[in-house]
């Protein structure tokens, strides 16, 4: 299906960094201190960019790299030079902890989120879609023969949560072969915004002007959507202090306010 991303999760770190630069997803702050590389879930780009600037104003040198949590975790597992990992699912933070790659005392929950069903704004207006329906009813009424855009439910946190929600509302078996699977939740949003998929499941914090929320999944439809951060051991002890300083900023009231302003929930 055109537009559906099918890139391998085994891309090299070099290609990942090139992608980040090409999309404007990476930058290096010019302040002093030990340089830090932060690998963060694609869905956190908005608030994490602001927090990186806040860190720069506190004298830190930060480079941000964004992609799906699972891809980033596997890159770190394979020795990528990350100092901090921000994940959209505790699963990947736990995995790195179990491999003794993180400093256990650094692991912290920094935000939470909600799962929403979206339609493209043009489709919403053309088909006079009603918002506020339960997710199950909205999918059955409006998806029809189209594909539901979701991040990869086998690896990507947004997709894992979407699979849980679809299972709990009794639609997974009917829809599992009608999914437009993407590399991350940002790509799923783009499929809907561009009109390539009629509906999609994304985080509430991802909603943009080109899409409309037509339903919010109940919290009990899926496990809690929690974002966690951890400092990475393999970057060396010389960066531990700077990494912990950055995590302190994430945990601060200023950091929490940035996430909430960006559509996330507090932790």
- The end-to-end span amounts to 37 Å
Q: Identify the strand order in the major beta sheet.
A: 2-1-3-10-4
CATH architecture of the largest domain: 3-Layer(aba) Sandwich
- Structural Rg: 18 Å
Low-confidence stretches: 1-32
Largest sheet report: 5 strands, mixed
> What is the residue-mean pLDDT, rounded to a whole number?
86
General form: elongated
Can you describe what's shown?
The protein is an alpha/beta fold. The chain is built from eleven helices and ten strands. The chain has two domains: 13-112 and 225-261, Periplasmic binding protein-like II (D-Maltodextrin-Binding Protein, domain 2); 115-216, D-Maltodextrin-Binding Protein, domain 2, CATH 3.40.190. The protein has helices spanning 13-22, 45-57, 69-77, 90-98, 121-126, 135-142, 157-168, 172-175, 185-193, 240-251, 253-261, and strands at 35-41, 61-67, 84-87, 108-113, 115-120, 148-151, 179-182, 199-203, 211-216, 225-231. The protein has a five-stranded mixed β-sheet. Strands 7-6-8-5-9 form a five-stranded mixed β-sheet, with helices on both faces. Helix 2 links the parallel strand 1 (35-41) and strand 2. Residues 1-32 have low confidence and may be disordered.
């Amino acid at each position: 299906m055109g537009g559906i991303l099918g890139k391998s999760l085994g891309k090299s770190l070099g290609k990942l960094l090139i992608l980040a630069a090409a999309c404007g997803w990476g930058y290096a702050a010019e302040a002093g201190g030990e340089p830090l590389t932060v690998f963060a879930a694609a869905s956190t780009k908005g608030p994490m960019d602001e927090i990186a600037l806040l860190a720069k104003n506190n004298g830190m040198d930060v480079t941000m790299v964004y992609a799906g949590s699972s891809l980033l975790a596997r890159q770190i597992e394979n020795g990528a030079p990350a100092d901090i990992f921000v994940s959209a699912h505790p699963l990947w933070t736990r995995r790195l902890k179990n491999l003794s790659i993180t400093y256990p005392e650094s692991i912290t929950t920094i935000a939470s989120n909600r799962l929403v069903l979206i339609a493209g704004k043009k489709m919403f207006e053309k088909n006079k879609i009603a918002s506020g329906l339960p997710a199950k009813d909205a999918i059955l009424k409006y998806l029809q023969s189209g594909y539901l855009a979701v991040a990869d439910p086998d690896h990507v946190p947004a997709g894992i949560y979407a699979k849980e929600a679809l299972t709990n509302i009794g639609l997974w078996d009917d829809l599992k072969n009608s999914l437009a699977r993407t590399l991350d939740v940002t790509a799923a949003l783009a499929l809907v915004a561009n009109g390539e998929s009629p509906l999609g499941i994304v985080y509430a914090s991802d909603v943009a002007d080109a899409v409309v929320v037509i339903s919010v999944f109940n919290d009990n439809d899926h496990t809690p959507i929690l974002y966690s951060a951890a400092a990475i051991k393999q970057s060396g002890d010389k960066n531990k202090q700077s990494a912990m300083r950055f995590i302190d900023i994430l945990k601060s009231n200023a950091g929490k306010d940035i996430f909430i302003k960006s559509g996330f929930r507090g932790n």
